[in-house]
Amino acid sequence: MDILTIILTFIAVSLFLLFLYISIIALKVFTGQSIKNPNYPPVHGTVFHELFYYRKLLDYHTETAKKHRTFRVLGPGQSDTYTTDIRNIEHILKTNFDKYCKGKYNQDIVVDLFGQGIFAVDGDKWRQQRKLASFEFSTRVLRDYSFAVFRRNATKLVRILHKLSDDGQAFDMQNDKEDILSRFLVESKRNPYKMNDQYLRDIILNFIIAGKDTSASTLSWFLYMLCKNPLVQEKVAQEVEDIISSQDNGANLDDFMANIINATLDQMHYLHAALTETLRLYPAVPFDGRCAKMDDILPDGYRVKKGDGVYYMAYAMGRMPYIWGEDAEEFRPERWLKNGIFQSESPFKFVAFHAGPQICLGKDFAYMQMKIVSIALLHFFRFKLADDTKNVTYKTMFTLHIDGGLHLCATFRTPS
């Protein structure tokens, strides 16, 4: 009986403390901290709202951002600012870059996975990794080697899908060169105390995740959008046919793949636009941010305090009418084209590849990989959803994956 009393008392006290904490947070919201101090962004919920809407968190952020371009979410001991304002994003990612950092809270979330890799560090460690990796990404050796690997793997994928299409099966889409690892290994010999094995593991894992995970998820969303927009799928396939038809493509897979070269990719403006439109609506990293190292004032006039997080919402930004027009939520690759030529946007408006000093080093490689795979798949196959009635949505994670995978059927295209 005494043990039961102790347990019940402990539960009662815990529930009371939880209720007290929620009440304090709720009081801050409903008495309106932002009304008392209009210099700070309006409060629009607490961490409990984030937990309640977790499965549809990105849509919750989107609907909130349509009412307030910049708003706050209250948490234990701090408040986090969320924004879709392009001026604010340029401010934290470029103009006032040195006033912001990843912050301990963000680092603690990712440290188990990323360790001391480039996505989890600031200061000298970040600059060191960024400098060494940027050398490698600028070399022709890496570009040529990557191109060959992407093309070889795309060929393997076509062969696998050919067999599956013949069987009528649905499926789920989810040489010794100097490489990034080699460059860091050389550096580790120069600075053995700074570059130990664990540090190298962290660095390489960061690049593997950045290079593989994000491109794979984007290709899945791309194929999903093509299935939902069959006219766009046919336009991309027609562009592939028009550009490569002047070459001896024939029906031979190896010959066709050999004809895919850099010049071929550069001519694929509609494909580039369709991939970019996919990233606008389904960015690989749906939201990201930094932490204020000191009190600051954002360009929209709102203040942030030292230690507050400031997050930009890439997923929500792609759906903002004030940024992309009234058709913001429509999949329309043509918005990126002028007279048939792809036109890029400000990286602070289209933030799928981050922006400022931390802009993604692998952006060109990501497009290269996605284009090669897309050309191969859409030349040989036509895709449709295995089940049109099934709702396809995201899984709330660090990167934007399709919840439950993407189940497709492929039919072989008849050579024209």
Automatic annotation (TrEMBL):
Heme binds at C360. Coiled coil: none annotated. Belongs to the cytochrome P450 family. Its cofactor is heme. InterPro entries: Cyt_P450, Cyt_P450_E_grp-I, Cyt_P450_sf. This is Cytochrome P450 704C1-like. One of its GO terms (molecular function) is oxidoreductase activity, acting on paired donors, with incorporation or reduction of molecular oxygen. The chain crosses the membrane at residues 6-27. Keywords: Heme, Iron, Membrane, Metal-binding, Monooxygenase, Oxidoreductase, Transmembrane, Transmembrane helix.
